Amino acid sequence: MTRTTVFLLAMLLSTLSWAREADAPASLYTAYFDVGSARMAAADRAAIRRLAGRLGGRRLLRVVGRADGMGPSEYNALLAMRRAEAAFRVLVNAGHPARLIQVEARPANHTATSRREVRRVDVLAAGMSPKRDDFPPSLRRDPLRVGRYWVVAPVPTEAQRDPLRAIVRIAFPQSVTRIGEALDYLLARSGWRFAGGASADPTLPGLLAMPLPESQRRLGPVSLLDAVNVLCGSSYDSVVDPVHRLVSCELKPGFAKLYRRGTRP
To answer: What DSSP line would sit under 60-118, residue for residue?
Structure first.
């Protein structure tokens, strides 16, 4: 075999290796779930532990949970977050630093070829998109390229479009003792305010002055609007004013008689 032949074979093998790498999925690992479940299979947990071992705690990761779009959007957002947290726990227990992991829940992808494809969690290098099919059709032809093989979709998240749908975890400090204080604390950095003034439901002052239940000192993962609903209670409906970015609660009609009865002298 001549030197020229050896050189050409080496070049061919190098080209094939590059092509396999270029075609490889962006996800460092993808685990799939059953319908409505956030329970990860033992094989997936083992694979993620091996991945954590290879990374050696030196890489910033994104863990992106997804749902298939069946059912209410609030339910799917919570389910997607539970799937992401399942992978997060495995990574942390395997020794990957929690501070190097960003956990996300993403809206359902209705363009996938099967619903099973979006019942998943992707473990990614931070800043990288899991699969090109996750981009909206208008962006698939021209996504932003990062590095040699990786691409990202330049689109806002659901939480950026609508901050009230952001999935949050919150622990109220001990200085927050009333429901009104908890609502103000919850919305403090969201760009929204709780409307409890003169134009609001006349029953609100009594509600806002009530003690914050101990069971509600920690909330989440839950959407910001659902957290408002939890604090206001089942006898109230949330009311949203998107123009002025105000959110409030109104007493449900069926509870009006109970309120009047309770305020009699």
So the answer is: -EEEEE---S-S-HHHHHHHHHHHHHHHHHHHHHTT--GGGEEEEE----TTSSSGGGG
